[in-house]
């Protein structure tokens, strides 16, 4: 199907550097395909080092003037950008669904979620307060002020192409930073459309720059930013191995880092939980975006007394999910992003079955006339999962729920924390004493307590251990784009 947009100019297929839309200096192009069909429908520049350097040149030149603008002026720009995003919500949702594959309702919902970050940081821009410190001796004044870090390089993933860009760029601009950005190679079009709206909102030249690149060319682009001392911060969402590489390679210039990396979220259901609420929470947390989110429950632990009842309710709900392309109005689960994603899911399911797990529902790639590409996988529930399976050790990133039966609270705490990751965790219980014990014991940056929907622009988002550091969203997210400066004035007595 052709991509139909009310505002046709939202389909941008060039880099945006120093306020100009331009091709890669090499002239190379990268195709953009629809996961639902596997067919190419657009192309963007396959940028290299020269384009990355030009973006830094523009951002560095623009920084002094953008930093000098008042917080209120920067906030007014962000408010205009927010209004334009919401005015184009349906078109942006169509772009997301076409290049990423999620159902249209989810795509449109993601636009509103992305816009919420722009609005939040527009409001927070005027609240970057400092402090007055009681002086230790007469005749001195001690003050703390906040300043923007400088040029920020933002590298975003494919699973939320609008939300991840907004969650990084909005606080950077609010703080007074300028930005160079690279969206994921699978989903560049939504990000470019958001940049167009920023341009229309009146963003000055050089303040925001975006280059696109293939998987093969991405290291060439990012290495320029890592080596350039003018880039003072890297913000990245993606895999832990890539995050570790960025941390190592940025050490030479001691850049500030925000790394939101891999997860292996536990979802724990105690025998005193509201089972229907727990099933609802798991469905919301696990199957949003087809299980392709970093905070999706990856390991589900259910206490013995309620295990069978929980699994039966879950099996019925999962088996009823409608899988199909975004163009089908009743689709609840779209295709996976590409063939590599489906191959990983198949490998995890096959490994689990070989090691004793049983398939309660699903467990196969979907084929036939209704599925125009090989990227569809049936929503799946596995029972009898254990810690030796690949699906317990690695992030599956797909619509697969491995369920493990457990006995005691101490047992499940040990199992939940037995991972190098610590991004999100969930548990359901009606015992208030247990709620506080679990909240304290779980090694995770985010904990859902009787709740499956965690993310909000007002709350800090980020992990611990090998899930990274730094926070996005909330007032803490703005702090990650600022330095703290201490001023001491003497000779006042």
TrEMBL record:
Record's keyword annotation contains ATP-binding: no
Active site: 260
One GO molecular-function entry: oxidoreductase activity
Database matches in PROSITE patterns: ALDEHYDE_DEHYDR_CYS (PS00070), ALDEHYDE_DEHYDR_GLU (PS00687)
Domain of life: Bacteria
EC top class, as a word: oxidoreductase
Keywords: Oxidoreductase
EC number assigned by the record: 1.2.1.-
UniProt xrefs under InterPro entries: Ald_DH/histidinol_DH, Ald_DH_C, Ald_DH_CS_CYS, Ald_DH_CS_GLU, Ald_DH_N, Aldehyde_DH_dom, Aldehyde_DH_Superfamily
Residue ranges annotated for the Aldehyde dehydrogenase domain, each copy included: 21-486
Transmembrane segments: none
Keyword Oxidoreductase among record annotations: yes
Family: Belongs to the aldehyde dehydrogenase family.
Listed name of the protein: NAD-dependent succinate-semialdehyde dehydrogenase
Taxonomic source organism: Polaromonas jejuensis
């Amino acid at each position: 199907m052709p991509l139909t947009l009310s505002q046709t100019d939202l389909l941008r297929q060039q880099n945006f550097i120093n306020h100009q839309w331009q091709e890669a200096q090499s002239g190379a192009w990268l195709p953009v395909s629809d996961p639902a069909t596997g067919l190419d429908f657009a192309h963007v520049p396959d940028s290299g080092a020269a384009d990355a350097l030009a973006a830094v040149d523009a951002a560095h030149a623009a920084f002094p003037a953008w930093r000098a603008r008042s917080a209120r002026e920067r906030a007014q720009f962000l408010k205009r950008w927010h209004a334009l995003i919401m005015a184009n919500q349906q078109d942006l949702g169509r772009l997301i669904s076409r290049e990423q594959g999620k159902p249209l309702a989810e795509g449109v919902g993601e636009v509103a979620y992305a816009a919420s970050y722009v609005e939040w940081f527009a409001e927070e821009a005027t609240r970057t307060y400092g402090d007055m410190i009681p002086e230790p001796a007469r005749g001195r004044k001690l003050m703390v002020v906040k300043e923007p870090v400088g040029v920020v390089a933002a590298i975003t993933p494919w699973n939320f192409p609008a939300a991840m860009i907004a969650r990084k760029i909005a606080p950077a601009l609010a703080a007074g930073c300028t930005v160079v950005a690279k969206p994921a190679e699978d989903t560049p079009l939504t990000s470019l459309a958001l940049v167009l709206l920023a341009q229309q909102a009146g963003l000055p030249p050089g303040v925001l720059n975006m280059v696109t690149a293939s998987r093969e060319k991405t290291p060439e682009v990012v290495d320029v930013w890592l080596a350039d001392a003018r880039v003072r911060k890297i913000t990245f969402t993606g895999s832990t191995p890539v995050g570790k590489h960025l941390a190592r390679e940025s050490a030479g210039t001691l850049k500030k880092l925000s790394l939101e990396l891999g997860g292996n979220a536990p979802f724990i259901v105690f025998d005193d939980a509201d089972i229907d609420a727990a099933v609802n929470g798991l469905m919301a947390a696990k199957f949003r975006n087809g299980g392709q989110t970093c905070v999706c429950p990856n390991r589900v632990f259910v206490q013995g007394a309620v295990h069978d009842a929980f699994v039966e309710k879950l099996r019925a709900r999962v088996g009823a999910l409608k899988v199909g392309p975004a163009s089908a109005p009743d689709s609840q689960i779209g295709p996976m992003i590409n063939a590599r994603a489906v191959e990983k899911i198949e490998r995890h399911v096959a490994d689990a079955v070989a090691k004793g797990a049983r398939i309660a529902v699903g467990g196969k790639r979907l084929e036939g006339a209704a599925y125009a590409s090989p990227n569809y996988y049936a929503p799946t529930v596995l029972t009898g999962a254990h810690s030796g399976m690949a699906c317990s050790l690695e992030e599956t990133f797909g619509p697969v729920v491995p369920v493990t039966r457990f006995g005691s609270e101490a047992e499940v705490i040990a199992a939940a924390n037995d991972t190098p990751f610590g991004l999100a965790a969930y548990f359901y219980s009606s015992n208030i004493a247990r709620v506080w014990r679990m909240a304290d014991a779980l090694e995770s940056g985010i904990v859902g307590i009787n709740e499956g929907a965690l993310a909000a622009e007002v709350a800090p988002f980020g992990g611990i251990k090998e899930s990274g550091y730094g926070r996005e969203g909330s007032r803490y997210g703005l702090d990650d784009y600022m330095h703290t400066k201490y001023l001491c004035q003497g000779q006042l007595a």
